[in-house]
Design brief:
116 residues, alpha/beta, 5-carboxymethyl-2-hydroxymuconate Delta-isomerase, 5-carboxymethyl-2-hydroxymuconate delta-isomerase activity, 5-COMe_2-OHmuconate_Isoase
């Protein structure tokens, strides 16, 4: 935990190696000191233009879905959001849509393989 899932237009991974993009998100999340570095998980899902619509265009986009365990305050989550978007903006200055949202997991309802 946490999980960072990067949705993006296929063109994004043609501009930059997917490993590099995922590492940027990983390193940025780790630098906030909100998570143990070994616990951070990052995935990327590129979409062909036929499978997305951005304001009725086929503009490139990056959106990060961050799923984190509850317990961080609003300021911490806001800083995490801003840091990740800032770093992605540096890597992709010409991409018109770069965004993130953070969702909290509830400890009481979270379960993984090692817990059963």
């Amino acid at each position: 935990m946490p999980h960072f899932v990067i949705d993006c237009s296929e063109q994004i991974i043609e501009q930059q190696n997917p490993e590099k993009i995922m590492q940027l998100v990983y390193d940025t999340a780790a630098a906030t000191n909100l998570f143990a570095a070994g616990d951070i998980k990052v995935r990327i899902t590129p979409f062909k233009p036929a499978y997305y619509n951005i304001g009725n265009t086929k503009d490139d986009f990056i959106h990060v879905f961050a799923n984190i365990m509850e317990g961080r305050n609003t300021a911490q989550k806001s800083n995490l959001s801003r840091q990740i978007v800032s770093q992605l903006k540096k890597m992709f200055p010409d991409v018109p849509v770069i965004s993130i949202n953070i969702r909290d997991f509830e400890k009481s309802t979270y379960c993984n393989k090692s817990m059963v």
